[in-house]
Design goal:
Elements lengths: L10 E5 L3 H12 L3 E5 L3 H9 L17 E4 L12 H9 L3 E2 L1 H12 L5 E5 L4 H14 L3 E6 L15 E6 L2 H5 L8 E4 L7 H4 L2 H13 L3 E5 L3 H9 L4 E6 L9 E4 L2 E3 L5 E4 L9 H16 L4 H9 L9 E6 L2 E5 L6 H10 L3 E5 L2 E2 L14 E7 L3 H8 L5 E5 L1 H13 L7 E4 L3 E2 L7 H14 L7
Parallel strand pairs: 1-2, 1-3, 3-4, 5-7, 5-8, 6-7, 8-9, 9-10, 10-11, 15-20, 16-18, 16-20, 18-19
Antiparallel strand pairs: 11-12, 12-13, 14-15, 17-21
Length: about 450
């Protein structure tokens, strides 16, 4: 744990008692702060009390004495409208921050030069975070990984000169971190997402830009217009990443033919043949991780060894099993069309399990890739809308549930007579119509695939 010593003796309001909120309360208390914590959800309040945390209704608190409101990242700061605690804090002139800001203040106080890699982007940030941490660990470094990828940042060990923090940040977290300044800041890409929370794409992009604007070294993917513009504004201590064939701008690191090449054209890293890094998008992810690793002193030999041993992340183009020639891939993390695009680009002869709670725009943006799909198996609430989109373009079977879709797709792939069929769960949708989250959805698919009989009995 990282005790929040920079708040010692101060009175802090905290709203949001989920996992990161509870970790933040413990950190603040360990650092000597006086914490008044609340959550609108009674169950969350009860769980906090069970852990010995005092819960106080912030509606009835005296806001004049608070040094800060620590807001959970899932709580609206601006859109669709500010949470009621935000209104009270602003009326009292109380700064509104998040747990990442507390970490940044601790780093500035304890070890200002401590290695700190901060990673964001609409897609790919979890893979890049995990890969960066893996490369460093494989080379023997003391690595702490957390943030949006799972472990609350204040649950990690404190910043230190010989310890590297590799942290994934969402736009919500960046918005609550006014003093964000990392050693290496990585911005992978930007496509429309979370606009219900940020209002416009321009505002969303501006929030993401803060991560690289304050970094000692900015690593920026330039294959979309928003990131290319951001890279144009950050002209010093900057590395641009460009996937050949996916944009118009050249990059300092060019990703092509399974390799990452430097400005002189020399191969920096070889990615082809790493099963956990399939697809051109993972070339960009790997290039960003390699850039961070080089900045932190890893040799090319150490990087090559780390890449070969990277196991990948669950639910992100995760190869599960082969049954005969058929490969089963779990891409449950693909909750929007842009994420699913990466999976469709990585394969052909795809038996595509798709659907759930649809995002704005549905799957129409994927139309240029429909020729890669042999058959689509529709699940969830989006079935009617997706059937209409696919009509006349892709053969469709309405399956309703993931169980029916997996069995149907496996049977069809086996009898297709093609050399390398792929049964791909890449829903392009949120999971909430049938599953609590994408992890549960992906775990269920993994179990279903594990239970399938061998080729001769399918």
């Amino acid at each position: 744990m990282t005790p929040a010593t920079t708040f010692a003796g101060q009175k802090i309001a905290l709203f949001g008692l989920g996992g990161s909120g509870l970790a933040t309360v413990r950190s603040l208390l360990a650092g000597g702060a006086d914490v008044l914590a609340w959550d609108d959800n009674a169950g969350s309040r009860d769980r906090a009390r069970e852990q010995g945390i005092t819960v106080t209704d912030l509606n009835e608190a005296d806001w004049s004495g608070f040094a800060a409101l620590v807001l959970a990242p899932g709580v609206p700061l601006t859109h669709p409208e500010p949470h009621w605690t935000v209104g009270l804090a602003r009326a009292a002139g109380t700064p509104i921050i998040g747990d990442i800001e507390i970490f940044c203040r601790e780093r500035a106080s304890l070890a200002p030069g401590a290695p700190f890699v901060a990673i964001t982007g609409t897609n790919g940030k979890s893979t890049t975070t995990a890969l960066t941490a893996h490369l460093l660990r494989h080379a023997g470094r003391d690595v702490q990984m957390g943030g949006n990828i799972g472990t609350a940042i204040l649950s990690l060990e404190p910043p230190a000169a010989n310890r590297v923090h590799v942290v994934e940040l969402s736009s919500f977290q960046i918005d609550l971190t006014p003093s964000l300044k990392s050693g290496v800041g990585i911005l992978l890409n930007l496509t429309p997402d979370h606009l219900d929370r940020h209002g416009t794409m321009e505002n969303y992009a501006a929030i993401k830009e803060r991560l690289v604007a304050g970094a000692d070294l900015a690593v920026i993917g330039v294959d979309d217009a928003y990131c290319a513009a951001i890279a144009g504004r950050r002209t010093e201590n900057r590395i641009r990443l460009h996937v050949e064939g996916h944009g118009d701008a050249a990059g300092d690191y060019v990703c092509a033919d399974g390799t990452v090449r430097g400005p002189d054209g020399a191969v920096i890293a070889e990615i082809s043949g790493v099963p956990s890094l399939l697809g051109d998008h993972n070339l960009q992810n790997a290039a960003a991780a390699v850039a961070a690793a080089i900045r932190l002193g890893l040799s090319r030999e150490e990087i090559a060894a780390g890449l070969k041993s990277f196991p990948g992340l669950a639910h992100r183009m995760e190869p599960l099993r082969r049954i005969g020639p058929t490969l089963f891939v779990n891409d449950s993390k693909a909750t929007n069309a842009d994420s699913t695009e990466k999976a469709l680009l990585a394969f052909r002869d795809i038996h595509w399990i798709v659907g759930g709670k649809a995002k704005e725009g549905g799957i129409e943006p994927l139309a240029p890739l429909f020729d890669r799909v042999t058959h689509a198996y529709l699940i969830g609430a989006s079935s009617d809308a997706f059937a209409a989109t696919l009509e006349g373009r892709v053969a469709v079977t309405r399956c309703g549930t993931l169980e029916v879709a997996t069995e149907t797709a496996a049977r069809a792939a086996r009898t297709s007579g093609t050399e390398a069929p792929v049964v791909l769960l890449s829903p392009a949708c949120a999971s909430y119509d049938q599953f609590p989250n994408f992890e549960v959805r992906g775990d269920r698919f993994r179990d279903l695939v594990s239970a399938l009989p061998d080729e001769n009995a399918v």
